[in-house]
């Protein structure tokens, strides 16, 4: 099993940081610290801590910044990195971005969004949930109070995930998908096909819409509740401030 990071996004709501950096390289360490860690740093550290020695990083917007740091990141975290180019990162949404990493999926991956600050306990929870024929397991926050922007999930005890979308009454949801998934290699082909169908239907759809496509085809997706842990998806400057508060705890 390897790590896989979606790091192709522009993150325009985080300007001026993202004028020159992809979202995954925006500093979440102390304000003004030239060596402050990034979401990518935190994610690679998590991968290393659970024993992963290889990771793919899907890059696009300002990808040269990731290429420039590749060797230093490999040395710092002891994880061999493969950079995967997304040629439509500034035009299409992340269903296509994850599809670009379809070959990496065959090894089995822990997938992490490049804008999610989270503790290593999330990866450990997913790894502990493996087995019993589970092929895709979503990290689910069942504690947080939900609003309109969150990626909400409905879970049936007998069928696993039945619905995933932001466009849902929060009261109907079982929890929020935090942007981290364990994908077994045997699911790679079916997931890649579902992602292709998703972005061909609408290139602005999310990879979570690909998960929904899979479920609609009869594929079971499981979930693993992460418990009461501090994490944040960094979309804007308020989220970034929260990310800095959380990152200093790890």
Describe the structure.
Helix 3 packs antiparallel against helix 6, helix 3 crosses helix 7 and helix 6 packs across helix 7. This protein is an alpha/beta fold and 250 residues long. The protein has eight helices and eleven strands. It has one domain: Alpha-Beta Complex (Spore Coat Polysaccharide Biosynthesis Protein SpsA, Chain A), CATH 3.90.550.
How many structural domains does the protein architecture include?
Answer: 1
Give me the CATH architecture, please. Answer: Alpha-Beta Complex
Structural class designation: alpha/beta
Level of helix content? 25-40%
Q: What are the segments in which pLDDT stays under 50 over at least 5 consecutive residues?
A: none
Draw up the topology in text.
Layout: E1 2-7, H1 39-49, E2 54-59, H2 63-77, E3 80-85, H3 94-100, H4 102-105, E4 109-113, E5 116-117, H5 121-128, E6 136-141, E7 152-156, E8 160-165, E9 175-183, H6 188-201, H7 207-216, E10 222-225, E11 232-233, H8 237-247
Helix pairs in contact: 3-6, 3-7, 6-7
Features:
250 residues; Spore Coat Polysaccharide Biosynthesis Protein SpsA, Chain A; 9-stranded mixed beta sheet; two-stranded antiparallel sheet
Brief summary:
The longest helix is centred in the N-terminal third of the chain and has 15 residues, at 63-77. By secondary structure, the chain is an alpha/beta fold.
